[in-house]
Amino acid sequence: MVKTHIPGFPRIGAQRELKFALENYWHGKTSRNELVDMAKTLRMQNWNIQAESGMDFVTVNDFSLYDQVLDHSVLLGVVPQRFSDGSCDSFDNYFRMARGRAPSGSATRACEMTKWFDTNYHYLVPELAVNQQFILNPEKLLAEIAEAQQLGHQVKPVIPGPVTYLWLAKCAAEEFDKLTLLPALLDSYKGLLKLLARKNIDWVQIDEPALTLELTPKWQEAYREAYQTLSTCGTGLKLLLTTYFGALDTNLDLTAYLPVDGFHLDAVRGSDEFIRFSERLRSDQVLSVGAIDGRNIWKTDISAVAERLKRVADQRGDNFWLSTSCSLLHVPVDLQQETGFDPELYSWLAFARQKLAEITLLKQTLQGESSDQLAANLRDVTARTQSQRVHRIEVKRRVNGLMPQDGERGLPYAERAIRQQQKLQLPAFPTTTIGSFPQTTDIRSARARFRRGELDEITYTAIMQSEINDCIERQERYGLDMLVHGEPERNDMVEYFGEQLEGYTTSQLGWVQSYGSRCVKPPIIYGDILRKEAMTVSWSRYAQSLSNKPVKGMLTGPVTMLQWAFVRDDQPRSETCLQIALALRDEVVDLEQAGIAAIQIDEPAIREGLPLKQSEWEYYLQWAVYAFRVSASGVQPETQIHTHMCYAEFNDIIQAIADMDADVITIETSRSNMELLEVFTEFRYPNEIGPGVYDIHSPNTPTVEQIQALIEKAATLIPAERLWINPDCGLKTRGWDEVATSLINMVAAAKILREQR
Ligand code: GLN
Ligand code: ZN
Asked: Considering the chain, what percentage of its residues have pLDDT values greater than 70?
């Protein structure tokens, strides 16, 4: 009999219960017990959902109060020195590691956070000491196992694997080889497995997603060593070595010959690799096939998948398991809560709960049972492939008709710059901002009331216009050279455009954990993208009518629009991206026609779209850059195109950034003391740059001297005539007082430098 399970379930709760419980606890509004109780309730619900959906195991230890990697660091005793000052107990110390502060204990620098592979989830980076000791602290894990067993569940705990854990960790000593810690780490794992073996458990899921990366021989060897060691510890426990987020490719043989009892493979991104993999296994080894997409929200074509799996399923018999490709952490919890989708769209979707039902339906189908559900599934997925709402012939034609020259500006940067300067007449070191200004409670409440139908369009427009008025007036007073309208009408830089484009939709409760208590609600791209009408022109035109200074138009770029959404899976991402690029291109042209002389197309997500395997980078960057260029190239050379990116590390993609050929790029650099600018110097980046001169994430306001020093530093790296002066990122999370002081100081610094020239 085929067995079923999942690598993990979302822990935030269908109504984001965990988020609110955490925040209430952190802000001292509720007691620790209330948080602990909520966590327990959520775990119980999640296990019940799995059991009721027919899973043979419930997954335990996928739950976390903040992050599963942080949990594992605590379990292994990897707690940096600065958290051992004894100023609070372990419960709050955990939150100090996560966020630098907790209801008790002193404030300390939090652990670093970074993206979990190519997802939008962020984990806390383990900090290893050169002489790191691993001291087991398995209380949380053991308690949750006991909890699930008391509820009568068949338990399969999950832990991060040792090699992936080391891979994700960092060490303060730069030259240090993390792998020297592997033997000590493995001792610790052996101890852990021995403890688990006493808990009436058959299987332990051990997550090694690093196996889907391109590993060097040294890291491949680490895998052999690790699993050789763990296989000889004689506990009788079976390990399910779990890989996801891609194909094993060059690590396929390495993985297949690791001495474990079972494997889990991603059969969505890894497509049919599981067939080849299966051939390498002994018949007594388990193969768990992740055939339902854990990274997206589309209903699975059950009959088609069953067909793909059938042969291997028959061959392996009892040792064939069914699952989702990866943990369901990356999708929203329950589609049934959504009331806003029309029935057609609704019938195409599956969130976490629905994916569990799909696993069971797939199992029944593989066993030769046909059912009404299967017929309904087939009807829904077929309808989607044929729907008028998905396919727009005019959009497809336009994408197919794109030529290389559609990504060309007509004149090279150097000539465009002369014309732009004639038109804009900007001083040296021109000052500007990244787009958004404080989103006050008044602004948010006006938007919410309009959305609920409590404000009519005329009143709402008047309120937004008065906000724009205020924003323009203030920028004039601060003395900025290039203004913005302030983005009061936008809730979110992607959702705002998603709501206006055909082919996009938004859910009501489709929240996905981003880190800790933070969640995002990605829009859903279901069909060909069409811009029915201008999206930003009336706001920009209004703003420009209020000032003699240029007001920048403000758009979100095609790659970011793609990257921060759930994307349709029935055509290549590159094609969807080009459709968005064309919609944006029309908007850019309309802005130009409306008298907007500078237009910013934000692309903060271009780097995070990089595929996990480096061999795929070139292809990705090629279409991503082209899509940006298509969006930017419909205008005259006189029109100045800006872009903005905010993340550390431009090294990997500096060539691509240059290829984007924006006239001006603004970037985040202040926290690194302009060091991130060095790569632009080395590369001889040819266009204009605005390196952020202060950190908008910090509540501290910068002084004139601090800003001046940073600009002077920047001027040693980039010729002064190509430097712009601006903050690191948008100002929407700040208050007006801080914004005023900071920008006044920024303008003062720019003026001093101008006079010195
Ligand atoms: N224009 C956007 C803003 O200022 C850019 C946000 C971002 O870089 N993430 O808010
Ligand atoms: Zn930014």
From this structure: 100
Please report, in range form, the residues annotated as the binding site for Zn(2+): 644, 646, 668, 729
The answer on pLDDT for 320 being more than 80 is: yes
Cα separation, 121 vs 520, in Å, equals 10
What span, in angstroms and rounded, lies between the C-alpha atoms of 529 and 317?
44
Q: Which ligand 1 atom sits nearest the alpha carbon of residue 435? A: 4
Strands 238-242 and 262-266: parallel
Is 697 an annotated catalytic residue? yes
Q: What is the CA radius of gyration of the chain?
A: 27
Nearest CA to ligand 1 atom 10: 730
DSSP 208-272: -GGGGS---HHHHHHHHHHHHHHHTS---PEEEEE--SS--GGGHHHHHTSS-SEEEEETTTTTT
What distance in Å separates the CA atoms of residue 325 and residue 293, rounded to the nearest whole number?
5
Tens digits of residue pLDDT in 532-562: 999 999 999 999 999 999 999 999 999 999 9
Question: Closest Cα to atom 5, ligand 1: which residue?
Answer: 730
Say how many Å lie between the CA of residue 596 and the centre of ligand 1: 19
Is residue 730 in contact with ligand 1, taking CB distance under 6 Å? yes
Ligand 1 centroid to Cα of residue 340, in Å, is 28
pLDDT class of 27 with cuts at 50, 70, 90: very high
- Closest C-alpha to ligand 1, atom 1: 435
Residue carrying the six token digits 């962020």: 122
Residue 750 pLDDT greater than 80, yes or no: yes
